[in-house]
Amino acid sequence: MYNCNGTLVSDLSQTSPELLSSLFESFSIQEDVRLHGGQILFWEKHYFRLIASLRRHRFFIPMNYTMEFFEQEIQKLGHRISILNNAIIHLQFLKQNSSTVFIMKIQEVEALQIHSNDYTIDLYKEAEITSGNLSNLSVTNWGLRIMAEQYANENGLHDVILLNEQKNIVETLMGSLFLIQEDTLITPRLETGCQDLVFRSVFIDWIKKKRTDLKLVEKELNPFELQKSEELLILSLEKGIYGVKQYRKTNYQMEKISVLATSFFNNLD
C-alpha cells in the first residue's frame, strides 16, 4: 500500500503518470520513520530533519507541508492496512516540474529488540565517504552504500564499516556505530561524514541525560580503536540494537550492550 501525494493506492501503476515518471527520473529526498504502539517515534525531530534536507537540496516546500499534515498522512496509511504497532514508513519526496510531490510506503517490522547473534563485521575500503556536513544527509552516499552492501554479501559478512577519505570510521550499513571502552561510549562525530540520523541523536541525548555512569565521546576514530574496544554497538531504527560478535580476529562481549539497550527501549514510550 502506498500514499501517493495524499491518495492511497495498492499499486504504483494506479497513481498519476506524472508522479510515476518523477519516481523514475527525478532526484529524491528520503526519510524513514517508525510507528511504535500506534505513534510515530520522534516525529518532531524527523520532520525538522526532513524539511532541512528539502531546503538544502532546494526543493519547493508547499505551505501545507506541516508537521500535522504529514502525521495525518502517515496515520492514514497505517490505519488503511491495520499496521500501527511496529512499522517503518518510507517517505520519498520528488521534484515534479516546479513543485514537490511525495510517496509513502509502509513496511511491517518486528518490535525494536536486541540482536545478539554471531554478527560479523569488517571494513569496506573500496570507496570512501567524503567527510563534511553534506555527507550527514542520507541521500548523499546512497550509491556507495549499495556497493558496500553487495561487498558484504559476497564476503559472507553481516555488515561493513564505512570509512572517510581520512581513513576514519564513519558508520556501518546498518546504522550508527558506538564503541564501548570501560566506562566510555565513543561514536564518530558528525564532521567525519556520518548520517545525522534522528535515532542516533535521540540515543546520544538519552545517554547524556540518563546514564551518568557512562561518558559519551564524539570524536574521530581510526580503525585501531575497534580492537581496543570491549563491545561494539550498532543502532538501527528498523532493527533496534546489534551487538557485534566479531571484527576480524577480535571477539566482543554483549554484557554492557544488553543492559544499555534494555534500559533505552524501556524509556522510548
Question: How would you describe what is shown here?
Answer:
The chain is built from seven helices and 17 strands. The chain has 269 residues and is of the alpha+beta class. The protein folds into two domains: 2-108, D-amino Acid Aminotransferase, Chain A, domain 1; 113-266, D-amino Acid Aminotransferase, Chain A, domain 2. A six-stranded antiparallel β-sheet has the order 2-1-6-5-3-4. A six-stranded mixed β-sheet has the order 7-15-14-11-12-13. The chain is globular.
Task: Tell me the layout of helices and strands.
Layout: E1 2-4, E2 7-9, H1 17-25, E3 28-36, E4 39-40, H2 43-56, H3 67-80, E5 86-96, E6 99-108, E7 113-115, E8 120-129, H4 142-154, E9 159-164, E10 169-172, E11 176-181, E12 184-188, H5 198-210, E13 215-219, H6 224-228, E14 231-236, E15 240-243, E16 246-247, E17 250-251, H7 255-266
Parallel strand pairs: 7-15, 8-9, 8-16, 12-13
Antiparallel strand pairs: 1-2, 1-6, 3-4, 3-5, 5-6, 9-10, 11-12, 11-14, 14-15, 16-17
